[in-house]
């Protein structure tokens, strides 16, 4: 394997070139394989993805083209001990996020205490005044959470961002595993890897546990999609199918007798839990955006009356805000009474004049992000940006400093990918998926590993040229 590509930590090989324990059995197996055979397996994986239709749409392109998700067949491997430490930190953070949501829409104790500035949510479009004083069924706001993690050392995992609005990517986690098991069945008999294939069943169970009191013994769960032109439509359809749930669009639903009901061949039937993949603004044209054709007129009144569970709860998007993220260490401490197990990446809030000065003085070395941004868009990566791009971003920062946060350019860990020349290190992140219900917090072992396929690149988003790989958590 080639050098560390400037990264501080190579997850497969130690500095002396020896293989780390997590990868020992995999490397023994790999060395016994013929290179030509592995290359053929790579083509096989690509054709598998094409047959399955695992694609995503890229917005902003002239033709909004549909692309194949690049898949790398070398797994990212995490030991059982590493995963236990990570799980404790993830659970703590998700508990804090849910408590924060409840507080923000009720007594706002964290604001009163002076730990969080009121300005962060008063003019924040993700904060919904319509949710004030309302508690969702079971007290759960964040039913499905994706916590993005990066690694910078042997025991150094950092939270890069929180995704508590409509986290995506779980279908790729599941398909990556299915592809690996189909291509390398002998590997899974040789190495004990914790399963992820039961995620849809666990998701269905977790959502059903959040059903409102009016639901019967077998709550009806449906997935609300914006439709086939949405970039994550494949995932919406996949999860509905795997859960045995109905896949619906806004036009399939209407409010009848105080319940949200879906059109079926035998008339309208009530829905108890709606796993929505539609943003807040489009959910109900009578409450939010009146021009929305994606939502259901009147659903929010039914929700407030306890007639349906919406997952995730409207208004949870504020916890995805990167300005709020900057306060997560204080938020975790406030609601759990504990120091954060998983630290944040060091963050400068550009709304603060001293922080803004530091960011402007050091722009070529920093990563700057929009507080509402996602998908790798609207950001500046200082070390790889041109002087012209830096100058343009400098003007944006001066014009709207409250719209940005900045972070150091991290030395992300690398994992090997398979290339024509053999294994080569590439930077990765990890999105574990977490389910929350009144019955507890359920963390799927592994998650989605996204990988920057270009040498030296730090951008892992599929929309920006990144790919994915299977994430293995070893059984003890």
What's this model, at a glance?
With 476 residues, this protein is of the alpha+beta class. The strands form six sheets. Strands 3-22-21-18-17 form a five-stranded mixed sheet.
The profile of the biggest β sheet is:
5 strands, mixed
Please identify the structural class as seen in this structure: alpha+beta
Query: Strand order of the main beta sheet, please?
Result: 3-22-21-18-17
Spans of at least 5 consecutive residues whose pLDDT stays below 50 are 1-7, 58-64
Q: What is the terminal-to-terminal distance?
A: 27 Å
Helix % is 25-40%
In total, how many domains does the architecture comprise? 3
Instruction: Kindly report the average pLDDT value.
Output: 90
Q: Strand fraction band?
A: 15-25%
Total E-strand runs = 22
Q: What overall geometry do the principal axes of the alpha carbons give?
A: globular
In DSSP terms (H or I, runs of 4 or more residues), the helix count works out at 14
- How many whole angstroms does the radius of gyration measure? 23 Å
Describe this protein's structure:
- This is Circularly permuted type 2 ATP-grasp protein.
- It comes from Croceibacterium salegens.
- InterPro entries: ATP-dep_Glu-Cys_Ligase-2 (IPR051680), CP_ATPgrasp_2 (IPR025841), UCP005522 (IPR016450).
- It holds the Pfam family CP_ATPgrasp_2.
- This protein folds into three domains: about 20-210 and about 310-340 and about 410-475, no CATH class; about 215-305, Rossmann fold (3-Layer(aba) Sandwich); about 350-410, Dna Ligase, domain 1, CATH 3.30.1490.
- The protein is globular, with a radius of gyration of 23 Å.
- Strands 3-22-21-18-17 form a five-stranded mixed sheet. It has a four-stranded antiparallel sheet with strand order 5-4-19-20.
- Helix 2 (about 35-50) packs across helix 6 (about 170-185) and helix 3 crosses helix 12 (about 330-335).
- It has 14 helices and 22 strands.
- The model is unreliable at about 1-5 and about 60-65 (pLDDT under 50).
- Strand 8 (about 255) and strand 9 (about 260-265) form a beta hairpin.
- Helix content is about 30%, strand content about 25%.
- The protein has helices at about 25-30, 35-50, 80-105, 110, 120, 170-185, 185-190, 200-210, 235-245, 300-305, 320-325, 330-335, 355-360, 385-400; strands spanning about 55, 65-70, 70-80, 145-155, 155-165, 220-225, 245-250, 255, 260-265, 265-270, 275, 310, 350, 365-370, 380, 405-410, 415-420, 420-430, 435, 440-445, 450, 465-475.
- The protein has about 475 residues and is of the alpha+beta class.
């Amino acid at each position: 394997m080639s050098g560390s590509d400037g990264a501080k930590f190579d997850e497969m090989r130690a500095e002396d070139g020896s293989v780390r324990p997590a990868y020992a059995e995999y490397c023994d197996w790999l060395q016994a394989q013929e290179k030509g055979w592995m290359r053929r397996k790579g083509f096989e994986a690509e054709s598998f993805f094409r047959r399955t239709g695992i694609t995503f749409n890229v917005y902003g392109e002239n033709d909004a083209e549909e692309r194949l998700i690049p898949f790398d067949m070398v797994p990212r491997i995490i030991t059982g001990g590493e995963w236990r430490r990570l799980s404790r930190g993830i659970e703590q953070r998700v508990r804090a996020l849910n408590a924060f949501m409840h507080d923000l829409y009720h007594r706002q104790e964290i604001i009163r205490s002076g730990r969080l500035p009121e300005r962060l949510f008063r003019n924040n479009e993700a904060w919904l005044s319509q949710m004030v004083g309302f508690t969702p069924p079971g007290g759960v706001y964040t039913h499905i959470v994706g916590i993005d993690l990066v690694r910078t050392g042997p025991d150094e995992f950092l939270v890069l961002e929180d995704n508590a609005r409509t986290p995506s990517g779980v279908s790729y986690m599941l398909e990556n595993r299915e592809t690996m098991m189909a291509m390398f069945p002998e590997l899974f008999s040789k190495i004990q890897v914790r399963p992820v294939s039961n995620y849809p069943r666990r998701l269905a169970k977790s959502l059903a546990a959040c059903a409102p009191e009016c639901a019967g013994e077998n709550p009806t769960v449906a997935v609300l999609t914006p439709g086939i032109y949405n970039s994550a439509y494949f995932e919406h359809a996949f999860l509905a199918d795997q859960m045995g749930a109905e896949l619906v669009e806004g036009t399939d639903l209407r409010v009848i007798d105080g319940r949200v009901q879906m059109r079926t061949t035998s008339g309208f039937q009530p829905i108890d839990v709606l796993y929505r993949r539609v943003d807040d603004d489009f959910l109900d044209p009578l409450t939010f955006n009146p021009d929305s054709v994606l939502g259901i007129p009147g659903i929010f009144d039914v929700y407030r009356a306890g007639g349906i569970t919406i997952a995730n709860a409207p208004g949870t998007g504020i916890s995805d805000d990167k300005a709020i993220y900057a306060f997560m260490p204080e938020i975790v401490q406030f609601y759990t009474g504990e120091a954060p197990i998983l630290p944040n990446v060091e963050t400068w809030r550009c709304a603060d004049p001293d922080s803004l000065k530091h960011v402007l003085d050091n722009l070529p070395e920093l990563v700057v992000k929009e507080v509402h941004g996602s998908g790798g868009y609207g950001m500046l990566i200082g070390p790889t940006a041109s002087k012209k791009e830096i100058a343009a971003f400098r003007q944006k920062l001066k014009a709207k400093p409250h719209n940005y946060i900045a972070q150091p350019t991290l030395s992300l860990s690398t994992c090997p990918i398979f290339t024509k020349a053999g294994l080569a290190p590439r930077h990765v992140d990890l999105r574990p998926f977490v389910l929350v219900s009144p019955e507890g917090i359920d963390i799927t072992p592994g998650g989605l590993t996204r990988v920057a396929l270009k040498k030296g690149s730090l951008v892992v988003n599929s929309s920006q040229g990144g790919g994915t790989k299977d994430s293995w958590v070893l059984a003890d």
